[in-house]
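Message: I would value a second opinion on how I read folds in token form. Give me a protein, with the fold worked out from its sequence. Write it directly below this note and I will take it from there.
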Amino acid sequence: MGVAVGVDGRAESGASLDGLIALVADDLREVNELILQRMQSPVALIPQLAGHVVAAGGKRLRPMLTLAAARLCGYEGRRHLGLATCVEFIHTATLLHDDVVDDSALRRGLASANTVWGNKPSVLVGDFLFSRAFELMVEDGSLEVLAILSRASSTIAEGEVRQLLTSNDLATGEAAYLDVIRAKTAELFAAACRIGGVVAGRPRAESDALEEYGMSLGIAFQLVDDVLDYSARQATLGKTIGDDFREGKMTLPVVLAVARADATERAFWRRTIEDLEQEERDLDEAVALLTAHDALTEATDRAKAFGQQAARALDCFPDSPIKRILLEVVDFCIERAF
């Protein structure tokens, strides 16, 4: 494993989610029970299909952030459990819809739900999970929480549409792509963190800080995913390489490489990304071009910069074991690239 630069500038390696998982273990156990309870339905296909996605694993990072943010703010009630479940349902619903839109065959190394059951059931069960999420919001009873999570849900949908508009479009610039991932990925990170402060009744400045932490962390997380799609490191994580390339997605490494491309290289990107006319060796050529133009390194540097922003956002909180765990989460998200 390589060595990453920590959010405070120190060289670090081996950051993990172990501290976060241990911190929220009891709460997460209850959240997992709630997930199983609330995805039940007399329509047998619904829990069957939803359970397939839930059982596929995943780190439960977003709901864990809600639980940890509430703990950071000294919350001792139980509202955060239902809201963490709500966050996970929103995330799972978007995964189901994403896989249909992207025509993905795999999700976390397993056959995607749309591959097993087809597109129509996947979309409809995604809708069911969104509805369950809104039921949980209403049960919580806070209009502020409802506003945060409903706004996040609509922003995520806008992000998906933005991505459709930028896919296969070589004219997409860095600013436009960052707008996509702020909406599509980072918005739910931000909302998940903010509601942890809201349920604790903390001053607005602290909730704002948690939102900024989540937003910057989410952007960093997605940028690292962009890099991993073209990296041999991806294979060690049990994921396939080149999915974004095969789908013609204008992720940041490609945006940077296209901006520096000569005429021959631009013709390659036009054929493979815009026209989706790809040959077996094209992925290797794409990786070579990204490497030649330092696009993967620069995208990683952008992720580090957003990681540093996430860390600085927590400056308003006093030092504590919980704060240090949230800072380690930032390091973990960045170090996945190494």
Remarks:
- The chain is about 70% helix and 0% strand.
